[in-house]
Each structure stands twice: as C-alpha cells, then as structure tokens.
C-alpha cells in the first residue's frame, strides 16, 4: 500500500497524551492543537507535492513506456520498445519493494531518472529518455518521487527481462556512451527570453522530451544537437521537422492549430497524430494546462529554423487536377497504377471518400502532412499499423492493413506500395515513390543505424574495439560542437 501522507497531529492528540494528569490537560490541549495545525499543513504540503508530481509524471509521459499495452497495470512495466538493437522492456516503477522501486531513496530515483543508472549500479539503455530528463530540476524530482512513493499503487510483478544480443548486452558500454553523449547540466533558463518561453523550453526539452523523437540521431544513436528538432526516425515512423522553418517545419502553422494538434491530435486540412505521436497526445499533451500548451508553442515557434530542399510545405500538397478515369485510360491491365486504384477503392475510399476528400469523420488525404512529406514513412506506417488515439471520450480509429490486420484486410508489401503510390500521385507529394522493398524495411522497424548494421559483419570483440575508437573520434568532434552556444 502507498504510505499515507504523514500526519503527526492526529496520533499526538489522541493516544500519546491520554494518560496525562488532568491538571496538565489544558496546556497540552493547547500544544496538541498547535501540533495538529502544523501536522495538517504538513499533510497539505505533501499532498500538494504529490499533486505536482502527478502532473509532472503526465507531462513527462512516464506511463506511456512503463505500462504494458491492452490494460496493463499503470507503471508496472513490460512495454516493449522496439529499438534497432532489439526489444527493450520497460521496468516496474511502482513502489513494490520486491519488483519495483519501493526500496529506492530519492537519490537512487534521481540517479536512475536523470543519469540512467539503476539502484544496483547497472546502466540503463537510453530507451529510457534520461538524456532529456537530466534537465529536470531538483524541486521537480522531489515532487515526482513523492508521487511515485505516495500515490502510485505497488504492483508485485516482474516484467519480461531485456536481453539484447552481444555486444549490446554489455550494459557497462553505456558508461562510455554516457561519457560522450549525456549532458548532465540541469535546465538553465535563458534570461534574454520571457518566462513563458522558458516554461515552454523546460516542458519541451526536459519533460516532454520532444527531441528524443524529433531530432535526428548520429551513427551512435545519439541526438545530433546541430539538427535540433529537424526530424528523426522513430522505428517505422518519422517525427517530422518541427523547427520554426515556414516550409520544412511548423512555422506556417498558427498558434491555435498547434494547440489544437496537441489537445486532439487532429487539425483538419493539415495533420493527424498517429503512432508514437498519438501516444504522446493521448497520454500526455491533452492533459496539459492551456498555459503550458501555449508556452510550448511560444518556444517551438522560436526554435531556430532548419530548412530542406522542399519548396512546398508538406501540408500544402493539394489534390492533383488529373481525372482518375483519364489517368487509368490506356493503362495495361493490372499495372501497378491500376492495382493501386483498385486497392484504394476497396480499402480506403469507404472512409477517405472516392476523391480522397474525406468528410466530417475522416480526414482528407490531400493537405495532409502524412502524404505531403518528402518521405513515405508515415503514410506506409499508417496503412501497416492503422491508427488509434483516444482523446477525452473520442476515439479516432483506422484499421491496420499490415501484419496485425485480419486476414481479409491484409495487404502485401507490393499492394501497400501500389496504393501508396496512387495516394502520393493523386493527393500527396508526387515526387515520392514507394517500392515494395521500402514497405518491407518499414515493416521491419525502419532504417538501422550504422552501429547495428556493423554488428553481424565483424567478430563482436572487434566491434567493441571499433565502437570505442569511433566513439573517441566522435567525442573529440562533439567537444567542438558543445563549445557552441546552446539552442535559443
Ligand atoms: C520512452 C520510454 C520511457 C519513458 C517516457 C520513461 N521511461 Fe523509465 N524506463 C524506460 C525503459 C525502457 C527502462 C528500462 C531500461 C533498461 O532496461 O535499460 C526504464 C527504466 C526506468 C527506471 C529504472 C528502474 C529500475 O528497475 O531500476 C526508472 C526509475 C524509470 N525508468 C523511471 C521513469 C520515470 C519516473 C519516467 C517519467 C519521468 C520514465 N521512467 C519515463 C523507458 C521509459
Ligand atoms: C515518441 C516520439 C515523439 C515524441 C516524444 C513527440 N513526437 Fe511529435 N511526432 C512524432 C511522430 C512520429 C509524428 C508524426 C505523426 C503522424 O504524422 O502521424 C509527430 C508529429 C508531430 C507534429 C505534426 C507534424 C506534422 O507535420 O504533421 C508536431 C507539431 C509535433 N509532433 C510536435 C511535437 C512536440 C512539440 C513534442 C513535445 C512536446 C512532440 N512532438 C513529441 C513523434 C513524437
Ligand atoms: C474505417 C475507416 C478508414 C479506412 C478504411 C482507412 N482509413 Fe485512413 N484514417 C481513418 C481515420 C479515422 C484516420 C485518423 C483521423 C484522426 O486522426 O482524427 C485516418 C488517417 C489516415 C491518414 C493520416 C495519418 C497520419 O499519420 O497523419 C492517412 C495517410 C490515411 N488514413 C490513409 C489511408 C489509406 C491509404 C487507406 C487505405 C489503405 C485508409 N487510410 C483506410 C479512417 C480510415
């Protein structure tokens, strides 16, 4: 059971002083009344701290990774994070003494969350976003600890253990990685910016850890700080450029559109949140206060713009003027184009409508960032995995057509490539082409970083040596990078 907030006032007044002689009673009553008031305010303070910790845990989205899918006990772990290295299972962070963090002191807890080192001294993999949490302030860590210890229900159950292949199974190698890539500096407010900007920067960088998905990673899977928020792969999905660039980023979105996206995950004629972003909206962003969402937008709109070769923003690709009938006329039977058209008619048009224009319930496929991006990852992933996002009482749902689909709905890699090309050609960015091999790659969890591609090629020991040598080189380079001024 969670320890109830300590309340010394009640037990003092009631039991401890009971046998004391009547003559002393008035004085003691007086004293115990004083203690009771102090106790009450102590309890209030604890419950304030717990409430603050609850909000912070929501903003930091701890539940998303530490709760097993399909109704797992909150914070009891067992959620598998698909990384290019293999599946990493989250741990039980309920205050269970046996299986969770019940024996963690506040210091142990801080060290795990901000430095990636568990109580037993073992190193955590950065699938736990401690590189972002390193910026969390001491006060906020205190509140988070109070929440986990006093309010989260202990669950005595050990989730599945993480077993990565050699050499990644050697957790101490993370010590080298941390030396290179973990910046332990707490959040430093920028005095040249407003309080709202700083609140937004703290929320986005430290708690919400937007950069863990939206910043591209280098060959060692560390964030490339020179490309902050310029877009990065998250397994099968792609977290787009959300810098202030008007074309490549979100500079063209109004403040209200961004807030609506964070609150609901859906801005008609612009974007819907699927995959990992649907989870961020569902578990975290929709629950933030309006002031905090405004603060994030203020900060985001001021993140240095990083452009791309694209000249049209991904939300601006409209419907092609070509008539479908004309397009199909004269095509040889069963051409990929024709196959794409048939799959679209059979599997997509019922919801997204024959012209891809959508309706009140289903989004249009033009003026849609998933079809206008200069890469097809989110279009293909949405077809493979579908979409599920619960906001308030409303559920946005699109069925999966990939591996999880029912037999009748299942589409092959070629079918998905054909329907994607049909959608891109008519409603999205027509310069993007999808081959069946691209679908297979996305099905398999996306592009693998260099460090993983090397693994099967050489003897594991040689890899470790190579990794260390390369790491030292990167470290030397990163010292130059670090000496540049920070973001903003
Ligand atoms: C993006 C996913 C993700 C998020 C978000 C996340 N964690 Fe974790 N966390 C993990 C994974 C995965 C592990 C296990 C890593 C490993 O085994 O190396 C872990 C491990 C931990 C541990 C070590 C537990 C132990 O068994 O020793 C603690 C403590 C922890 N997380 C607390 C938190 C808190 C508090 C939050 C929110 C502030 C949080 N985590 C958010 C993925 C996440
Ligand atoms: C767990 C990974 C993850 C985290 C954390 C995350 N995002 Fe995302 N984000 C994504 C992915 C993936 C998409 C693409 C979703 C789609 O199109 O269906 C996305 C889409 C977006 C979009 C819409 C872009 C577009 O053009 O459609 C915005 C805006 C955005 N994220 C902002 C944020 C902000 C701000 C944060 C932090 C407060 C954040 N995201 C945290 C993964 C993430
Ligand atoms: C049963 C209805 C239904 C069917 C069938 C369907 N969709 Fe969807 N689709 C949806 C819904 C609902 C959404 C999300 C709306 C929201 O987020 O509010 C969506 C979203 C999308 C998105 C935007 C995803 C993102 O990440 O931004 C794309 C692209 C898409 N669908 C393409 C397709 C294609 C291609 C097919 C056919 C292979 C298809 N859909 C079939 C209902 C459907």
From TrEMBL:
Cofactor binding: number and manner: Binds 3 heme c groups covalently per subunit.
Pfam families, per the entry: Cytochrom_C
Cofactor: heme c
Residue stretches spanning the membrane: 457-477
Binding sites annotated in the UniProt record for heme c 1: 62, 65-66
GO molecular function annotation: electron transfer activity; heme binding; iron ion binding; oxidoreductase activity, acting on CH-OH group of donors
Annotated positions binding heme c 2: 210, 213-214
UniProt keyword terms in alphabetical order: Cell membrane, Heme, Iron, Membrane, Metal-binding, Repeat, Signal, Transmembrane, Transmembrane helix
Residues binding heme c 3: 348, 351-352
GO annotation, cellular component aspect: plasma membrane
Main location: membrane
Name under which the protein is recorded: Mono/diheme cytochrome c family protein
Native source species: Aliirhizobium cellulosilyticum
Lineage, highest ranks first: Bacteria, Pseudomonadati, Pseudomonadota, Alphaproteobacteria, Hyphomicrobiales
């Amino acid at each position: 059971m969670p320890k109830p907030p300590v309340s010394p006032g009640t037990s003092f007044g009631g039991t401890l002083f009971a046998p004391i002689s009547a003559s002393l009673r008035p004085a003691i009553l007086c004293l115990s009344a004083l203690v009771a008031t102090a106790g009450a305010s102590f309890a209030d303070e604890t419950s304030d701290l717990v409430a603050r910790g609850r909000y912070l845990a929501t903003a930091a989205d701890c539940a998303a990774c530490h709760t097993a899918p399909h109704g797992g006990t909150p914070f009891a772990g067992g959620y598998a994070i698909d990384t290019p290295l293999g599946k990493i299972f989250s741990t039980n962070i309920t205050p269970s003494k046996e299986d969770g963090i019940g024996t963690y002191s506040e210091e142990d807890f801080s060290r795990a969350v901000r430095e990636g080192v568990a109580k037993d001294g073992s190193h955590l993999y950065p699938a736990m976003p401690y590189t972002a949490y390193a910026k969390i302030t001491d006060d906020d860590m205190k509140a988070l600890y109070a929440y986990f210890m006093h309010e989260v229900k202990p669950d005595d159950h050990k989730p599945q253990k993480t077993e990565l292949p050699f050499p990644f199974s050697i957790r101490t190698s993370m010590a080298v990685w941390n030396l290179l890539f973990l910046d332990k500096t707490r959040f430093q407010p920028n005095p040249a910016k407003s309080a709202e900007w700083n609140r937004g920067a703290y929320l986005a960088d430290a708690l919400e850890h937007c950069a863990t998905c939206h910043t591209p990673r280098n060959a060692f899977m560390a964030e490339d700080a020179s490309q902050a928020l310029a877009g990065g792969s998250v397994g099968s999905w792609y977290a787009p450029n959300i810098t202030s660039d008007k074309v490549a980023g979100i500079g063209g979105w109004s403040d209200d559109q961004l807030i609506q996206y964070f609150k609901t995950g859906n801005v008609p004629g612009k974007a819907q949140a699927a995959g990992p972003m649907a989870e961020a909206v569902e578990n975290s962003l929709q629950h933030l206060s309006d002031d905090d969402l405004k603060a994030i937008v203020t900060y985001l709109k001021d993140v240095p713009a990083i452009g791309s070769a694209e000249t049209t923003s991904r939300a601006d690709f409209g419907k092609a003027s070509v008539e479908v009938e004309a397009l199909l006329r004269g095509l040889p039977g069963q051409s990929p184009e024709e196959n794409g058209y048939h799959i679209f008619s059979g599997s997509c048009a019922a919801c997204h409508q024959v012209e891809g224009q959508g309706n009140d319930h289903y989004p249009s496929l033009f003026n849609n960032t998933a079809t206008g991006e200069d890469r097809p990852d989110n279009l293909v992933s949405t077809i493979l995995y579908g979409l599920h996002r619960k906001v308030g009482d409303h559920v946005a749902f699109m069925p999966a057509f990939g591996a999880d689909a029912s037999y009748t709905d299942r589409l092959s890699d070629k079918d998905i490539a054909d329907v994607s090309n049909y959608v891109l050609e008519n409603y999205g960015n027509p310069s993007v082409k999808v081959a069946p091999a691209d679908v297979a790659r996305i099905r398999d969890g996306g592009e693998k970083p260099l460090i993983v591609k090397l693994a099967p090629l050489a003897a594991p020991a040689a890899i470790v040596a190579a990794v260390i040598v390369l790491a030292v080189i990167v470290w030397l380079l990163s010292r130059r990078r670090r000496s540049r001024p920070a973001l903003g």
